[in-house]
C-alpha cells in the first residue's frame, strides 16, 4: 500500500473513532438526563406522599400519640367585654346598668329595703323570659318600653309586655321599681292598668299564658338629679320594699322628628315611614327562601323601609337569606321562645305550634306588640303581616304612600287628627294557576305573585282576615288583624275602599269553591320588571357571598400549605448546617 493510501486509511479510522466517541457521549448525556428526571420525579413523589401522609395524620384523631396536643386557651371575657357578651345572651337584662351604676353604688332604698337585683338572682325562664309570682298569679315578663306619646295622661308610662296564667280576673296589687342612672334609690309606683291582649270569648283554658300589657306611670315631681331623665330598668314586686328577682331594661328610642304632626291641616303630607312586623318564623323543614326573597323585595317596592321578624326555627337555606337581609340592614331578626316554657327544640316546638292552636295564637301576640313598642318612634305606621299577605295598591297607585295620599282628603274631612288604624279588606288568591298565554307569563314561573293571579270573586267581610296600618301615635295593644285598644285623640279604625287597595292573601279560602267563582287579577304584574330585577340581584349577591366564603377557605388552606413548606425548608437548612458542623469537627 502506498503512503497516500495508508494516510487516507488512518484519517478514516480517526474520523470513525471520533463519531463513535461523540455518539457515546450523547448516549451518556441522555442517560444522565433521564436519571436526573427520574430522580426528580421520585423526589417529588416522595414529598407528595409525605405531605399526603401528613394531611391524613392531621385529619385523624391522634389516638396512639403519647403526648397530648398543645393546649388552646380561650380568653375569658372580663369587665366591659363580659358585659357585652352577657347582654348578647340575655338582651332584656341591662348588665351594663348593673355593672356601671347599681353594683358599685349599691343601689337600694336602704340596707333592708328594695335592693337592686343581682343578675345572678333573676328568675330566668326559657331564655328570653323572667318569672314574677304574686299571690296566685304567675307572670312571665318579656320586655319593657317607655311610652312618652302625647295622648297619655301621665308624664310617661313604662309598659311591660308579659303573660299571666289568668284572664278576666282581678290582679293582686303589684308595684314597679323604676331605676335611674346616678340615682341610688328606686322610684316606686303601683301598676295602674292590666290590659289583656286577648279576648276571653275567643277561647281560654286554665293556666295558659295569656298576653297582657302592664302600665307603670312615671310619677312627678322628680328629684332634681333625675328631672327630665328617663328610667333605665324596671322590676315588679308584690310590696314596695321587696327585693326583686326580675329586671328588664326599658327600651326608649327618641321620637323621630320626621313623623307627621298631629292635627295638621294640610292636604299633602311628607313622606311616611312604614315598618312591617312578622310573627315568629316556624318552618324548619321547608325551603321557602325563594318565596321569602320575593316577598321581602315586593314589600320594599310598596314602601316598607324596614322589616322586623321573629324566629323560632327555619330551614338552613332560609337562614342564609335572613342573614343576607340582616347584613343589608333591611331586616331586624329576633330569636323567640314560648312564654309557657316549652323548650326550644326543633321537632317538639314545631309539633306544638302546629297542633296546639290556642297556644300558638296566644304566643303570636307577643312579637306583634313587642315590634310595635320597640319601633313606634321609628315609623308613622306599622303593619302586622305574614309572608303570604300583601297590601296591594290598585289602579294607577303603586305605593302605600300613594294609598294614604289618595285617602287624605276624606281623612281630613272626617278625622283631622288621624285614624287609629287603616284597614284593608281581604281577598284570597288561590293555588290555581292560569294557562300561560304569552312568553311574558312563561318567564314568571319562579315569581309566585306573578304566577298566581286567580282570586276569589267575592271579598271577605270587613274586619274578617283584615290587615291594618297601625298608627303609632294612638295604638296601645294590637291583635294580628286590628287594633284592640288605643289612646285618646284618634278616630276609630277605618276600612279603605277596595277601589283604592286590597289585602291579597295567597292561600286557599277556608270554604270550598268552584273555579267558576275565580277571576284573574293581574295587579301585581305592574311591578314585574322591578320585582324580577330585585329578586335576581339578591340571588346574585347570595352566590357572591358563597363564593367569597369558599375563596376565603381556599386562601386559608393555601396559606397553611405555604407555612408547612416554609417549615420543611427551614428544617432542611438546619439539618444541612448541623451536618457541616459535624463534618468540620
Structure description:
It is a single chain. The protein has 585 residues and is α+β, with helices and mostly antiparallel strands. The protein contains 12 helices and 26 strands. The chain has helices at residues 3-59, 79-89, 95-105, 289-302, 316-328, 346-355, 357-375, 400-406, 408-414, 439-442, 448-451, 528-584, and strands at 108-110, 113-115, 124-125, 129-134, 137-147, 157-164, 175-180, 183-190, 193-196, 210-217, 233-237, 248-251, 274-283, 304-314, 331-335, 381-384, 389-393, 421-424, 426-428, 454-456, 467-471, 475-478, 483-486, 494-496, 501-505, 518-520. Strands 3, 4, 5, 6, 7, 8, 9, 10, 11 and 12 form a 10-stranded mixed β-sheet that branches. The chain has a 7-stranded mixed β-sheet with strand order 15-14-13-16-21-18-24, sandwiched between helices. A 3-stranded mixed β-sheet has the order 17-25-19. Helix 4 (289-302) crosses helix 12. It is extended. Residues 258-268 have low confidence and may be disordered.
Amino acid at each position: 500500500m502506498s503512503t497516500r493510501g495508508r494516510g487516507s486509511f488512518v484519517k478514516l479510522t480517526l474520523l470513525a473513532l471520533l463519531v463513535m466517541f461523540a455518539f457515546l457521549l450523547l448516549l451518556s448525556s441522555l442517560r444522565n438526563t433521564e436519571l436526573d428526571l427520574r430522580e426528580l420525579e421520585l423526589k417529588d413523589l416522595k414529598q407528595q406522599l409525605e405531605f399526603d401522609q401528613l394531611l391524613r395524620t392531621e385529619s385523624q384523631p391522634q389516638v396512639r400519640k403519647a403526648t397530648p396536643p398543645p393546649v388552646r386557651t380561650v380568653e375569658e371575657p372580663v369587665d366591659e367585654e363580659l358585659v357585652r357578651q352577657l347582654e348578647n345572651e340575655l338582651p332584656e337584662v341591662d348588665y351594663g346598668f348593673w355593672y356601671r351604676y347599681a353594683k358599685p353604688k349599691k343601689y337600694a332604698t336602704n340596707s333592708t329595703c328594695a335592693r337592686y337585683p343581682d343578675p345572678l338572682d333573676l328568675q330566668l325562664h326559657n331564655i328570653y323570659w323572667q318569672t314574677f309570682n304574686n299571690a296566685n298569679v304567675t307572670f312571665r315578663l318579656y320586655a319593657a318600653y317607655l311610652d312618652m306619646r302625647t295622648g297619655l295622661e301621665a308624664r310617661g308610662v313604662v309598659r311591660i309586655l308579659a303573660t299571666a296564667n289568668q284572664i278576666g280576673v282581678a290582679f293582686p296589687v303589684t308595684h314597679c321599681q323604676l331605676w335611674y342612672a346616678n340615682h341610688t334609690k328606686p322610684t316606686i309606683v303601683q301598676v295602674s292598668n292590666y290590659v289583656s291582649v286577648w279576648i276571653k270569648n275567643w277561647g281560654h283554658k286554665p293556666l295558659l299564658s295569656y298576653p297582657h300589657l302592664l302600665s307603670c306611670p312615671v310619677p312627678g315631681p322628680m328629684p332634681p338629679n333625675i328631672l327630665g331623665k328617663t328610667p333605665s330598668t324596671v322590676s315588679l314586686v308584690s310590696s314596695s320594699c321587696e327585693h326583686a328577682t326580675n329586671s328588664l331594661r326599658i327600651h326608649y328610642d327618641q321620637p323621630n322628628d320626621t313623623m307627621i304632626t298631629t292635627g295638621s291641616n294640610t292636604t299633602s303630607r311628607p313622606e311616611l315611614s312604614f315598618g312591617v312586623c312578622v310573627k315568629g318564623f316556624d318552618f324548619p323543614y321547608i325551603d321557602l327562601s325563594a318565596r321569602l326573597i320575593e316577598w321581602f323585595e315586593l314589600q320594599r317596592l310598596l314602601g316598607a323601609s324596614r322589616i322586623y321578624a321573629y324566629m323560632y326555627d327555619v330551614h338552613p337555606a332560609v337562614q342564609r337569606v335572613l342573614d343576607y337581609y340582616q347584613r343589608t340592614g333591611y331586616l331586624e331578626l329576633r330569636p323567640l321562645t314560648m312564654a309557657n316554657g316549652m323548650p326550644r327544640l326543633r321537632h317538639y316546638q314545631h309539633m306544638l305550634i302546629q297542633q296546639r292552636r290556642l297556644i300558638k295564637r296566644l304566643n303570636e301576640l307577643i312579637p306583634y306588640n313587642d315590634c310595635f313598642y320597640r319601633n313606634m318612634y321609628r315609623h308613622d305606621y306599622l303593619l302586622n303581616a305574614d309572608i303570604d299577605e300583601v297590601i296591594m295598591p290598585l289602579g294607577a297607585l303603586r305605593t302605600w304612600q300613594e294609598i294614604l295620599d289618595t285617602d287624605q282628603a276624606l281623612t281630613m274631612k272626617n278625622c283631622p287628627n288621624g285614624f287609629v288604624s287603616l284597614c284593608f279588606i281581604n281577598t284570597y288568591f288561590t293555588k290555581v294557576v292560569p294557562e300561560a298565554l304569552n312568553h311574558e307569563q312563561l318567564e314568571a314561573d319562579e315569581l309566585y305573585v306573578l304566577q298566581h293571579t286567580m282570586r276569589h270573586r267575592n271579598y271577605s267581610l270587613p274586619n274578617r282576615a283584615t290587615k291594618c296600618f297601625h298608627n303609632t301615635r294612638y295604638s296601645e295593644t294590637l291583635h294580628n288583624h286590628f287594633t284592640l285598644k288605643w289612646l285618646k285623640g284618634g278616630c276609630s279604625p277605618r276600612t279603605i275602599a277596595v277601589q283604592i287597595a286590597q289585602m291579597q292573601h295567597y292561600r286557599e279560602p277556608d270554604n270550598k269553591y268552584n273555579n267558576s267563582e275565580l277571576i284573574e287579577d293581574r295587579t301585581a304584574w305592574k311591578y314585574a320588571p322591578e320585582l324580577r330585577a330585585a329578586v335576581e340581584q339578591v340571588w346574585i349577591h347570595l352566590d357572591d357571598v358563597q363564593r367569597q366564603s369558599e375563596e376565603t377557605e381556599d386562601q386559608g388552606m393555601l396559606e397553611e400549605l405555604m407555612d408547612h413548606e416554609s417549615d420543611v425548608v427551614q428544617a432542611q437548612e438546619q439539618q444541612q448546617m448541623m451536618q457541616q458542623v459535624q463534618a468540620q469537627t
